[in-house]
Design brief:
CATH superfamily of the largest domain: Periplasmic binding protein-like II
CATH class of the largest domain: Alpha Beta
Order of helices and strands: HEHEHEHEEEEHEHEHEEEHHEH
Helix content: 25-40%
Number of strands: 13
Structural class: alpha/beta
Number of helices: 10
Number of domains: 2
Strand content: 15-25%
Shape: globular
CATH architecture of the largest domain: 3-Layer(aba) Sandwich
Length: 273
């Protein structure tokens, strides 16, 4: 019985992998900006609509780590990804088959967004800084810019997600941190306060893998998203519910200049344990 079950499980794993990566099944990877449950809920309506329009199954690939998502995309284990501007630029440097499809607009009908430097309303001193992830645009890159390129003078730690940064500051574990401005608003009632914010940054993008998807499939995806009516997309998660527009590479030019001359550390510069 044990041998039979072992063989069965082995065959099940092999068959599952073949099904998962067949051309009738697409793999979608969103950045882990919020917790896993919220990310799934935000993107589920969009994914179900695309499944219906494309007549394909779309499965989620969730990882807590930005780097892991980029690595899996480079290995062609991911067909579609939701990326912020810094992960997009990083992947573009390393991957010839990255195809930007659409920008997701914000509540002001703009394809740009901002990052905010935040603190707790009663906080005065700055000793410890909470960051998201090294490849998060609102992480080291934005916070360093908002601190006049002096982030290295403070103790900083990577916590992972935007909501984790916000909550750590509210709890008094850290003094300041970097968070996407649209997320900051969710924590005003708990005492989170914005100190400053960046200039406009190119928005979050849905990208396709031109190694696993044909030009026709990528064009079809783009056309579907650009022609979805407001009544449909307004039911999606709050970061993607305001419509879409085309991506132009020159939208990233200013951010490229910031990123080019900055060596972003991959590790914290202190241990608070």
């Amino acid at each position: 019985m044990g041998l039979f079950m072992s063989k069965f499980l082995f065959l099940f794993i092999i068959i599952s992998k073949l099904v998962l990566f067949s051309k009738d099944v697409l793999v979608f990877a969103p950045l882990p900006i919020l917790n896993k449950k919220d990310v799934y809920e935000d993107f589920y309506p969009m994914i179900k609509l695309l499944e219906k329009k494309l007549n394909k199954k779309i499965v989620f690939f969730y990882s807590e780590n930005y780097e892991n998502i980029l690595e899996e995309f480079k290995k062609s284990q991911i067909d579609l990804a939701y990326l912020g501007p810094l992960p997009y630029l990083k992947l573009q440097e390393q991957c010839e088959f990255l195809e930007p499809l659409v920008f997701f607009k914000n509540e002001n009908d703009s394809k740009f967004y901002t990052c905010s430097l935040v603190k707790f309303i009663k906080s005065e001193n700055i000793k410890k800084v909470a960051l998201t992830q090294p490849l998060s645009t609102c992480g080291y890159l934005a916070v360093n810019s908002l601190l006049n390129n002096k982030l290295q003078d403070y103790k900083y730690k990577y916590l992972g997600k935007h909501d984790e940064v916000a909550l750590s500051i509210i709890k008094g574990e850290y003094d300041i941190g970097g968070v996407k401005t649209s997320i900051v608003k969710d924590y005003y009632h708990l005492g989170l306060e914005e100190i400053s914010r960046t200039d406009n940054l190119p928005g979050f993008t849905l990208v396709g893998n031109s190694k696993t998807l044909s030009k026709n499939e990528l064009n079809e995806l783009q056309n579907i998203l650009l022609n979805i009516n407001k009544q449909e997309y307004s039911t999606w998660g709050k970061e993607i519910k305001y419509g879409m527009e085309k991506v132009f590479d020159e939208d990233y030019d200013e951010l490229r200049k910031m990123f080019k001359n900055l060596d972003i550390p991959k590790k914290d510069n202190f241990n608070d344990k």
